[in-house]
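Continuing from the previous page of notes. For each protein in this section, the sequence appears first, followed by its structure tokens. Read the first protein now.
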Amino acid sequence: MLTELVGLVDKITPVRESFNDMAKKNLYEQRLNSEKVYEGRLLHVHRDEVRLPDGNTSVREYIRHPGAVVVLPLTQAGELILERQHRYPLGRDFIELPAGKIDPGEETRACARRELLEETGYVAKEWQYVTTVYPCIGYADERLVYYLAKGLAFEGHKRDEDEFLEIFNVPFDEAMIQRGEICEVKTVIGLFWLEKLLRGEWSGQVEPKS
């Protein structure tokens, strides 16, 4: 009976294209013209007219972002260094991993070192590139570059005058349990990647050139 059911499912299940076959399709959108509609201290908003793969045209509105690094600071005792920070757009505090935007011409690893020291006051002897993710591809070109930082030593923070943070340590297992409280996307992503690293399920990727 089970064999007959499996055979029936095979007959009625539509055949899906493989990823390789899908990737061969021309999905490219050609920029025809571009207009910068807003330029801020951090974000630049553009409106472009594009030609679609079928020859029609459309409009794409998107944000240019300098990119950012995210640091996974892990102490010898297996604790994560996290920070609590108020985020004005949502009017509430969030628990986050240390992170910060990449300055023009700055290498990502140098940015990670700088941000860890500035925000938390720690320096790290060991740095490992983990991965790069693109959190909002529908409307921005932002990238998040993740690094694992170990061999930590405290030297004292060097925060900006308008930067107000609370820094604290938490056991990694506890941080994972409290995912309901940690709901900020870069931090949730970082916790999942760190879990894979600590379990030996992920060794990291080759670090691309900045």
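Done with the first. The second protein uses the same format. Note its length before scrolling.
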Amino acid sequence: MKRIGSIDSFRGLTMFLMIWVNDFGSLNNIPKWLQHALNNEDYLGFSDLIFPWFLFAMGLSIPFSIKNRLNKNESNFRIIRHITFRSIALITMGLFHMNMEMFNHEESIIQKPIFVILATVSFFMIWIDYSRFKLKGDLYKKLFPIVGMMILLILLFIYIGKDYNNYPIRFGIHWWGILGLIGWVYLIVAFGYLIFKGSMYYLIIAFILSFGINVMKTGILSSIPAIGLQSFTYGGVIVSLVLMKDKRSSKIVSLKIILLLGIVSFIIGIIFHKFFIISKISGTPTWVLLSLSSAFLFYAFIFWLVDICGHIGWYKTINVAGSATLTCYLVPYFYYNFLYIFEFQYPVFFVTGYFGLLKSIAYSFIIISFTKLMVKNNIQIKV
């Protein structure tokens, strides 16, 4: 199936922006509207939109990915196996990232930067795309993943963290981490899409159900990981189904539908604001609706720019962020921890205010460039 340029562009640009906003923690005195809202603050910062856009981008890709596999005559069992193993990989990486945040420097037998680098190297050893290598034999394809898993197990057993009261804790599920949440959302949405054969009726019901549970925050279904976040991915899937029917309608019609979805989400979000604050941390319904609205509208702009107007040249600079997204996401874990090991610090001038924001943009391009170099040398994760 022919790729839709705006989907890759949207995913790549979202990944670039995620790298950018994730660097804000190294800056001082940057505009409030760019930052995450504080806990229990009724506010929506730009940084609060990026994760929803990423989940929306994943939803855009799911129908095309499954359709391509079906066109290759893959059985439902093989596709379900792929969905399951991909989800397990994301959840595993997410759990390690989450536990890294609670690392106990005083009690651990190794420094946190060493722990993070070893874990990230292990991710690559386990899930690198070995099909890109042309070495004779496949021993390394079996040996490297085994070594990677052994390293992760050792790190798991030697890990010592500390809870929010500074009490020592072992490796555990305190929350799922960003990649873990993505893994859970992907598992549920992709599995449902396959089983119900991409039925628009199912998707609408599933969207309403996941959003309704998010509103009520009660019942056994509310214990499903990332239940409210699935709304973003269902939104992306619905848009992809609209685009798949593009043969029978013009791109302008598709654009109008996407814009309408964005406007309706925004209006309902404003109505819900009378009853719920806007909070990413609490995952409130208002945050879900307004963030989803921004995803619809932002994608509508990219769709108009790339697929209708044909302006795609700007994307070439960051295209690896759309094609090797997970690799791009993991590269900063090397960057930050090597800076720590070598005790490198930027001058205050470069981490303050608007100059700091420019530094973070330059940093984002450095990460993109390094990812391109890795991909060029066949170092790319594929799950």
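What the second structure shows: The first helix runs from residue 5 to 22. The CA atoms of residues 130 and 137 lie 12 Å apart. We return to this in next week's lecture.
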